[in-house]
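Summary for the funding panel

The consortium committed to producing paired sequence-structure records for every protein in the target list. Below we show the first two records in order, beginning with the earlier of the two.
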Amino acid sequence: MRRRNFLTTTTGTAAAVIVPDSRPLTVGTSDVIRLRFGLDALMELDDSRGGHEGLERAALAGAAEALEKLSKAASQRIRLRLFSIAADYTATAAWSALDARKLVKANDHLNQALYLAGMARDPIGQLRVWNSFAMLAHQRGLHTQAVDAGYAAQSTAITRRDPFFSSLAHARTAIGHSNLGDRQAAIRSLGCAQEALNKASPDEPRPSWVAFYGPAELTAMTSIVRDRIGDSAQAEAASHKALASIPKQFRRNRALATTPARPRAIAPAGHRPGVRNRL
């Protein structure tokens, strides 16, 4: 099933999630793949439009279908994969609510996504949720909580296996430290983020939600951190460097690289261009 068949739209809004089909009663790998393709299709929609109510509804419907299939799973392995997909769909709904500044709904979705990621034993899903919790705390002005969420992201098992995710978690923590005015901690976290990213393999397969992150995005985040701790010249230099290297399709990320990085003036760091910052 092609991903673009996953959604039907009415006036540009996601109107449906899963196309019913006649499949065997036992849920297996093919069902998991179909649901995963649907999730990737939502990521593409998010890239082009950002978070909106239709996307949130579609993501929640995808999570509901994944959970409905649990009782028919062919094995425990399939059950864990269904929990993981449900967590990803729910985290996508949370991001959409966060992007739309519906903070209460975002918090509720994130709590559910964290539960599902735990049931799935999915460290990547757990890291994604903690990163989103850090962004939510930033929007609420709760910068100590944002740092705590960044540390929680750093503690997930995937950061020990893949330095790419470790870099992402450290970069998110650096943003939190800079909002608190903790210069030394912010610079230390940036250093850890850069060191980890230098060790990461660019060819390692990773989920679609994290496609925004890489050297260019870390440079853009460095500009934000440097600006917030008062290093104006270094912030400007990093901003120009990021602007030259961020792919044009990441419109929001490019906007972050050209906007003064004051806490009240920018979207949460890590924003993909029509894509939000998934850091």
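The next record, for a separate protein in the list, is shown here:
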Amino acid sequence: MYSIHGAKAEKIESVTFMELDMVESDLEEILRNSVFMLCDEEESMLIVGRQVKNERNGRSDLTAIDNNGNVVLIEIKRDRRDIENRKEAFEFQAIRYAASYATIKSTDELVKKVYAPYIEKYRNEYETSELTSYELGIRKLNEFLERNGAVSSFNNKQRIILVASEFDDQTLSAVAWLNSNNVDISCFRLVPYKINSDIYINAEKLLPVADHDDYYINFLDRSFPAVIKTKKDITRRSLPKIEAMLTWGVVREGDTIVAKGKGDEAILLSNGNVNVGGQELSMQTWLKELFGWSSVQTYVFAIHKESGKTLSQIREDYMLQVGIED
């Protein structure tokens, strides 16, 4: 994301939901009220449930009906760490919930089990009416299906939408494979930005795409050094930024960053910015000012003084090491 100042653009670095003190339930509430963030231009959705519980105590985050009459399961994780710390895979958790929704055979059943309790919980959001939550749910659901010509196709299939600020490769690989086998499952990445006191979120659909193979994780070929294949995978998509490197512990707050070929130094801060002569700047801004270029490959031209390596080398070494262990 970029902000415009006259004829110049300034890059705005993303933040994390953790830095914004936002938890999964906050994202759930945002999407409950703004599910259009996950919709295509020609798509409509009606939210009918939140934290719906099945007979085995599994809870689905958000439930919706789309304009084709499909039940849509929206499962949310704040970030990659939340995904990887779960004992059960993100996509498998969602599949289990979708299987429960496949048992619903009528609009009456959906309203009784899901939509009416939802309306009851958020009754203040609906117009004043003498109708019960069940009656109001039946009326709204039937009207939605009728207007979209989806009465006859109600719940013929179930869709899954996974939402997170970052996905691990295992999840993306599994979702790509499910897509190729005709399972309707999508991945949306929500990336937050903070400008002054305002928070902005960029919603990006990662999957499905035409070429699923790009997301598959291949087996290691033991006849060649494993790092060859892993290195290709690392450079294929956007790489982790300095915030992740600080989390990994490969660089630390207070370390010295040197501009390659310049010798100018800055001190790394805990948020990934640098301190230059008492002024806090993003690393990109600092390097752009030094080199006088329109854009600088930050991680190539920033050298970690303590190790003598560029940030790019440090990041690649760590990711290759993790890849070999996996």
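Regarding this second record: The chain has two domains: 12-214, 242-325. The radius of gyration is 24 Å.
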